[in-house]
Amino acid sequence: MFLSRLRSRSRLGHSVANHVKLTAISQRLATPACSRLMSTATQKKQEKVEERTDHHAVVSTFDLFSVGIGPSSSHTVGPMRAAKIFIHDLKTHKVLERVHTLRVDMFGSLALTGAGHGTPDAILMGIEGESPDQVETSTIKSRVQDIHTNHSIRLDGTHRIHFNPEKHLIFNYFKSLPQHPNGLRFCAYDSDSNMVATNEYFSIGGGFVVNEETQLDHGENVYYKQEDKDGAMAERRQQDIAVVALPFKTADELIAVCKRENMTIAQVVYENELRWSTPEEIRTKLLKIWNTMDESIRNGVMACPTDMLPGDLKVRRRAPALYSKLLKGLYGPVKTSTEYHTNQIATSTIPMEEAIGHPDDHKNTFPMSLSVLPKRQRKRFFLPALDYLSVYAIAVNEENACGGRVVTAPTNGAAGTIPSVMKYYLEFISEHPERDVMEFLLTTAAIGMLFKRGASISAAEVGCQGEVGVACSMAAAGFTAVMGGSVDQVENAAEIGMEHNLGLTCDPIGGLVQVPCIERNALAAVKAIAAAQLALNGEGDHRVSLDQVIETMRQTGVDMMSKYKETSQGGLAVNVPMC
User: Which of 6, 50, 111, 502 places its Cα 20 to 30 Å from the Cα of 521?
Assistant: First the structure.
């Protein structure tokens, strides 16, 4: 599938006259008379992409995992980065000072669920020059309020212009740009209302942003998370054709490389990462990713248990109370089977009639079920793995819902699954924490690369299977790897993790990344452990391959109705009232 369409918008690098001229041209290109030209151009571009067989799946681990803010990587992190890129380009082409006002249009999913995902606020912060990994989250609310009150904003934090968010931030609820559901259009105008510059950006999931220069060629990994492209190495800008030590396009190729080189998946990714970073830089950045994940768990469980999550759903934080119960041991001690069944009918020598009475004894009892099947007293249920996995995942996603700092893993909506599984392993199983962190993250990154190239990690494109489903698959692979599983078993675990998330829809109630998103991460963490156990108890032989399930996921996403793709127009979003 080739997602790219002929672009009719001008590039930011053109002169003012060219921008105005090309805008007029774009209007003419929209007429039926030009449809054949557009179709021909698209066909030629498709043929060009098909000819390029050297594109691999390898991208930097630190482009796949990145530090950002909640609640959404595609609707918060991506739009903030897009706004910053646009403002940076205005500076680069020396037209920033000429800008008198801006207009920002949000299309498709960004418009439909943007308010609940914090998209407008993220755009405003990006315009002011902030980046997701460095913005001080505690100041965002007051700064946004100031912009709304004073009807002005500072481009790159320096050039103040007139800007009324109610007027200049446009929600196009019933329009989508053809390239991707998460579309943004920025237009800058001078004091005479002449257009100075314009560009369109697409937030394709995981915080990645593409525009006209990068296009949206399906499977082309030209994605890197740096606003200033001139400041990025050429190999980072064209990662899919960069010369890496051990390239791979598919899971089968990855396994073949591992077996040929007698290496683990983590070792293959590490060798490729040396293309862009030194060994010490790799170590430092991997530990920073984990420390951010761990901090988001800590913040989530240590929050006030009476706090409510933002938005009209009025959802209360659950992680603090759940964690408190775990620490206090209120779930009770683990009982053996004999202890559990003491005085129960299953192990009792008392005859059945004495235990429940003779049927004649209940002739005058109505209803009879009250005496035959009396209501049970509540039992204490204790499964440490499930309890800790759940509370860790919930903690991260509640932090994400509050706009806190999290790691895209591979997205914000799925940010709790991988940290939860890692935290559980490090606390209860690990003997070499630092080494295990590196192996876990590098292994999960490889699986994420395969999904990113072969399908998508954008819920607006393929539903929640592309976010929580991918996170579950990645976590299962990482857990299997650090448990000493073979390469085949790691691939098997990743396949199981996704196979049983196929078709998962994205239907957030009220456009908020809360219900069902938070609990869904907890269930994905538990499912990842189960997938790993199944794989570890086998020999790696299985009927369905990871490559097959990735392609199935892509096809399922294509066939899925748009109302189930992060639009809040179907599913729980329309069947659960907000009040």
Answer: 111
